[in-house]
Design a protein that fits this description.
It comes from Plesiocystis pacifica SIR-1. This is Peptidase S8/S53 domain-containing protein. One of its GO terms (molecular function) is serine-type endopeptidase activity. The protein contains 13 helices and 23 strands. By secondary structure, the protein is α/β, with parallel strands linked by helices. It has 3 domains: 158 residues, no CATH class; 314 residues, Rossmann fold; 145 residues, Immunoglobulin-like (Sandwich). The strands form 4 sheets. A 9-stranded mixed beta sheet has the order 15-21-18-17-23-22-19-20-16. Helix 9 runs parallel beside helix 11.
Length: 682
């Protein structure tokens, strides 16, 4: 591989009812008992007796209060994804309160208030975001009656209730023969060859560009035990692409993290696990806000000798489109405005198109949110001025209204095919290799990752490298470099402002060489077609060697079953893939007849007992197009054998399937989640 030596016109409020979620310690001094001026009597305010239950008594429905409309109750209390958070946008007007406590209207008893967005490193909140507020209920989780009373208080402010919506936990990470060093080395070689990585940055003239990973961790936290290490893994992949040199400190200084996936699957916050599986729209909007405001603060800090010229923010998460996210109300409106803030700052937000949590089924059509915002144009100069985001100077160029709001990316395998985990009808114009990715890491906890998380991390790192070499480029031009230098696949884009254009696979080397020009020592000649062996020769040799040395337990035949679609209701989480698959090194040996096959299984220890214990599993067999051919169920006896096996035992399960080209292993876990991972066929 080559080497490179005041107030806005529109008042908006975000109301967060974070009952029982451990957020009360964050509240400001401002509380719901404060009244901020009198409003015109024409508002006809209700009394506390009309809207509130008596202190200390259970909340009872009040006569005459109709339930809020469905547009407000986007998820139901107690269904597992209700965080208690509500957002609203208060319109401008002469009788509008000017603080979060709603002035003379007040809040129902038990509620406190604070600003949603805070000043960051001395920078005040942009005018367009300053009016957002966070409301927290002090007590048990809000019931439907509590939401009803709050809704009717908001309804006393003209037009406000029409923009309000409950915030739901909706966004989760998109990644997805244990511990053999040679197998890991083979996967690492395949990863770097398939993305056309650059071996060295020594001697390159690089401007500072910040990469901000919005995920499970706030910074490198090697002592924490975040679920499945997703935040760490994304950082490892970005760092490997940016800084392969052992002596390079480039991304040690310019690789940053913000915690956005901070909740367990039921919407709670558990401070003991050092992170979470999922995040709500409020969590994500705050994390992205912190990231871009940190970047803006360092850009204007006179004591920073080498400020980062640009910011690339990556979000390897997404919300299922069955949630019917409306970006014009609720917490999604806040997230949408924060993404405007990123674009108005000249930054790039790289979004994951998403994985399939039920491969081959209708619920997996289309890109996840916010990647779907690639269909929308970035803000123009007028919108940025309205938001209160001034330019920082000629050293920090901004282009307006000339590109998608987010840069979406999807994944392909080593042969430019769509894995079974790829969502249907969800291809933007860029894809990146995203299967069985592994890179060296200091904790030793990383397992091979399959998912659009991998593609998002590689793309974000590549954009940062292009900008570091040529900082005069605009955000639009950076995207164009990656597209123009990528390898043309056989696919057409399903979404994005550019329309139905060929999809291209990102080549790190080709993109960087494009901007290096004659002074670049790279010998990269252009993006290459996929290798016939997928650059996995070393990996297959290592697997064969490991199997020869392993104790083999013949688990018998799998049970053939028809594929079943779960078709989850619209209010469930997007849980496409836990961050480490349960059997990351499992593979299939194809038979000489091309029909009879052997599935080699070796579960990670964490999936043999405890909350992640495997209860059931099956293999989805796919053909060369990624279409599902059949479902092969593991029997109860086979599952028991897998969990009882000790190293170095490998359990072999036999199955029959014509036209097999790949597969996906799906395991149902004791905690209700699903572990999904690619299976290599050779």
């Amino acid at each position: 591989m080559p080497s490179l030596s005041t107030r806005p016109n529109a008042l908006r409020f975000i109301l967060a009812l974070t009952a029982g979620l451990g957020l009360s310690a964050c509240l400001d001094a401002e509380s719901t008992t404060e009244l901020d001026g009198e409003l015109d009597s024409e508002l006809d305010l209700p009394s506390d007796a009309e809207l509130d239950a008596s202190p200390g008594s259970p909340m009872q429905p009040e006569s005459g209060l109709l339930p809020p409309p469905p547009e407000f109750m986007t998820c139901t209390p107690g269904d597992g994804i209700d965080t208690g958070q509500v957002t609203a946008r208060l319109p401008d007007g002469p009788n509008i309160p000017d603080t979060c406590s709603l002035g003379a209207i007040g809040l129902p008893k038990g509620w406190t208030s604070e600003p949603l967005f805070k000043a960051i490193q001395g920078l005040s909140v942009p005018d367009g975001l300053e009016p957002y507020c966070l409301y927290s209920y002090q007590g048990v989780s809000p019931s439907a009656d509590a939401y009803t009373r709050l809704y009717h208080r908001l309804d006393q402010v003209p037009g406000m209730a029409k923009t309000a919506a409950v915030d739901c936990v909706a966004l989760s990470g998109m990644s997805g023969l244990d511990g053999d060093a040679d197998i890991d080395a083979g996967l690492y070689q395949a990863f770097r060859n398939n993305i056309a990585a650059i071996d060295s940055l020594a001697g390159a003239q690089l401007d500072a560009v910040g990469v901000y990973v919005v995920d499970q961790i706030a910074e490198w936290e090697f002592g924490s035990s975040t679920p499945h290490e997703h935040g760490h893994n994304m950082g490892y992949i970005v760092r490997d692409v940016l800084c392969p040199d052992a002596d390079s400190d480039y991304c040690d200084a310019h690789l940053h993290f913000e915690a956005g996936l901070i909740r367990t699957s039921d919407g709670a916050i558990d401070p003991g696990i050092g992170g979470g599986h999922v995040g709500s729209h409020v969590d994500i909007s705050r994390a992205i806000y912190r990231a871009i405001m940190r970047w803006r603060a360092q850009a204007v800090d006179p004591f920073v000798d080498d400020p980062e010229r640009h910011a690339v923010i990556m979000g390897a998460f997404g919300a299922n489109p069955t949630l019917s996210v409306a970006a014009d109300r609720g917490a999604a409106a806040a997230l949408r405005e924060v993404l405007d803030l990123v674009a108005c700052s000249g930054g790039i937000f790289v979004a994951s198109s998403g994985n399939a949590n039920d491969p081959g089924c209708a619920a997996n059509d289309g890109p996840l949110f916010p990647a779907a915002l690639a269909n929308e144009k970035s803000p123009d100069a007028g919108r940025c001025a309205e938001l209160g985001v001034p330019e920082l100077g000629p050293a920090f160029p901004v282009s307006y209204g000339d590109r998608p709001l987010v840069d979406a990316v999807a994944m392909v395998d080593a042969w430019d095919r769509l894995p079974a985990l790829a969502r249907d009808k969800a291809l933007p114009d860029l894809v990146t290799y995203g299967t069985q990715a592994w890179v060296p890491n200091p904790t030793g906890k990383m397992r091979p990752q399959t998912g659009t998380s991998v593609a998002t991390a590689v793309t974000a790192a590549t954009m940062a490298l292009v900008w570091a070499v040529e900082p005069s480029l605009s955000a639009r031009e950076v995207h164009e470099v990656l597209y123009e230098t990528g390898y043309a696949t056989s696919y057409q884009a399903h979404y994005g402002l550019a329309g139905d254009i060929p999809v291209r696979r990102v080549s790190v080397c080709s993109a960087v060489a494009k901007v290096c020009g004659k002074d670049c020592p790279s010998t990269c000649t252009g993006a290459e077609a996929p290798a016939s062996d997928g650059h996995r020769g070393h990996y297959h040799e290592a697997v064969d060697t490991a199997l020869d040395a392993a104790l083999v337990n013949d688990g018998g035949e799998a049970a053939l079953a028809p594929p079943v679609c779960l078709d989850p209701p619209g209010n469930v989480l997007s849980e496409p893939t836990p961050e480490n698959p349960a059997c990351p090194y499992c593979d299939v040996d194809t038979g000489i007849d091309g029909v009879s096959h052997a599935l080699n299984l070796d579960l990670l220890e964490a999936f043999k007992s405890g909350p992640h214990e495997v209860l059931a599993g099956h293999l989805l067999a796919v053909d060369v197009t990624g279409s599902i051919l059949g479902r092969h169920e593991l029997t109860n006896a086979q599952i028991a054998a897998l969990k009882a096996a000790s190293d170095p035992t490998v359990t072999v399960v036999h199955f029959t399937q014509p036209n097999l080209d790949g597969g996906t292993l799906v395991f149902e876990l004791a905690n209700g989640r699903t572990a999904i991972g690619e299976v290599i066929v050779h």
